[in-house]
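can u do me a favor
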């Protein structure tokens, strides 16, 4: 059993950092009430965490190649634990958002080294099992966030969703120091600070522009200016990377259809399978009146199915080509998300069970294979970079999808509210409604119009959710089709003997 201790430490860290992507969603109403915050402000507590995680992932991968992957992994755990304590003690929204940014720094250090540490620790079938279990942690964590968040918020208070990280991080550090051997990549060179700065600036401006568009509209001059500045920063990043001998990301990798498609697939998976859970959780609490715990438990089917399928996939899909696991997994995610459109104004939470189960099945198939497929699509000296790039794109998918879906949902809800004539400012009402303020809006209605206003609000929220499910489903279907069509077949098992060990750090082969 001792040989599986490294897997335990790595999987614990992965589960913890990915849970923190979505754990805030179900606790949002409680946090907003305690800190007197708006949904838009709380959105930054999610987005800043994801932005820092995504922006620094590749830099953390380069640093780990230079300083040692275990060393960077343990440092990330310590930073994450300290930041979690700061989140749990935050006196106001600004302090919470700042601490979440530091959390993202620690998460980047952990996540950038996970797959590389597994690849250097395990070989043969043990490696397939290890990547399967790690993939199960990946697949279940984001969906489990609302469940754990609901349980902790209801029984221990919202601060517990952050403080629970402390004992988990302590256990992971102890195991890592005793059971994981130090290893380094072979990329060499210096950390690309200019590239990291340009990438961070571009991602932050783009996400801020999307959030601002939801509040002020796409034609708002400041919104347009921020988005244009983000595009300019992205162009500067590309120019910087082209001229460097040791770039943060080797742009020539994107000339390979397999690599580019896998990056798109990683972003699409998190965007389509997980971003909409924030809005489903708000719907369950505000429209259905469920407690935080029950709202979290309503999402259990996705987490449970994803965990079981991903855990079994390492053994059962050992000889299946990665493009099939990823491609068909994304098609299942797309189909499952589209099933969410069965939700109507008077639906209960059970209407989403088929959608959640099918989405969980797709997540369980695709998640464990994405990291390993990205390693195989890159040359031996770029494996650390490929792993970091995949993780970066996965988190960017979530960070960009969240404000975009919020904007689309509010827009659809505004159309319904405007048509009813019940609200003087349907745009503002739609923003409040999709941010979880249904009880407050309903309380403003007079006794004689209360029933009519209730029907309009429920219809508006359902219309907003339908638009979210539709966009998420289409994105996943497009990504799944692209993977099946463009990702090349990986080397057969018999050919793997000639592949360097770092490149073969992957799960299923085909």
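np, heres the sequence
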């Amino acid at each position: 059993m001792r040989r599986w201790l490294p897997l335990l430490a790595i999987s614990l860290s992965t589960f913890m950092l990915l849970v923190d992507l979505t754990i805030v969603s179900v606790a949002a109403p409680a946090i907003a009430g305690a800190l007197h915050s708006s949904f838009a402000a709380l959105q930054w507590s999610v987005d800043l965490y994801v932005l820092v995680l995504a922006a620094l992932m590749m830099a953390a991968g380069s640093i780990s190649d230079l300083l040692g992957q275990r060393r960077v992994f343990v440092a990330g755990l310590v930073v994450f634990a300290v930041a979690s304590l700061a989140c749990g003690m935050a006196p106001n929204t600004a302090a919470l958002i700042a601490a979440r940014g530091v959390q993202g720094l620690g998460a980047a250090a952990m996540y950038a080294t996970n797959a590389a540490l597994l690849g250097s620790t395990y070989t043969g079938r043990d490696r397939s099992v290890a990547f399967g279990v790690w993939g199960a942690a990946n697949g279940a964590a984001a969906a489990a966030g609302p469940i754990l968040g609901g349980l902790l918020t209801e029984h221990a208070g919202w601060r517990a969703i952050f403080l629970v990280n402390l004992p988990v991080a302590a256990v992971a550090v102890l195991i890592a120091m005793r059971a994981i051997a130090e290893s380094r990549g072979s990329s060499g060179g210096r950390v690309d600070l200019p590239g990291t700065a340009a990438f961070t600036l571009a991602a932050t401006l783009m996400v801020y522009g999307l959030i601002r568009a939801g509040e002020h509209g796409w034609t708002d001059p400041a919104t347009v200016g921020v988005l244009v500045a983000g595009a300019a920063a992205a162009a500067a990043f590309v120019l910087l990377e082209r001229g460097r001998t040791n770039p943060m990301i080797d742009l020539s990798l994107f000339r390979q259809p397999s690599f580019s498609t896998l990056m798109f697939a990683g972003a699409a998976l998190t965007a389509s399978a997980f971003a909409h859970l924030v809005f489903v959780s708000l719907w369950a609490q505000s429209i259905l009146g469920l407690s935080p715990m029950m709202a979290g438990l309503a999402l259990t089917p996705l987490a449970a199915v994803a965990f079981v399928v991903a855990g079994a996939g390492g053994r059962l899909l050992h000889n299946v080509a990665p493009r099939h696991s990823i491609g068909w997994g994304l098609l299942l995610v797309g189909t499952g998300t589209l099933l969410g459109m069965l939700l109507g104004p008077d639906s209960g939470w059970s209407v989403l069970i088929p959608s959640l189960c099918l989405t969980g099945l797709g997540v369980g198939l695709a998640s464990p294979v994405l990291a390993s497929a990205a390693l195989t699509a890159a040359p031996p000296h770029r494996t650390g970079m490929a792993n970091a790039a995949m993780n970066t794109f996965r988190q960017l998918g979530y960070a960009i999808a969240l404000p975009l879906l919020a904007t689309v949902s509010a827009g659809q809800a505004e159309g319904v509210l405007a048509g009813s004539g019940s609200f003087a400012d349907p745009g503002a009402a739609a923003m409040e409604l999709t941010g979880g303020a249904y009880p407050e809006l309903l309380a403003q209605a007079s006794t004689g119009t209360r029933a009519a206003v209730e029907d309009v609000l429920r219809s508006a929220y359902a219309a907003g959710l339908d638009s979210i499910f539709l966009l998420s489903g289409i994105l996943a279907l497009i990504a799944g089709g692209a993977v099946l069509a463009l990702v090349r077949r990986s080397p057969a098992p018999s050919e793997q003997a000639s592949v360097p060990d770092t490149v073969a750090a992957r799960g299923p082969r085909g």
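The domain at 2-182+246-498 is CATH 1.20.1250.20 (Growth Hormone; Chain: A;). hope that helps!!
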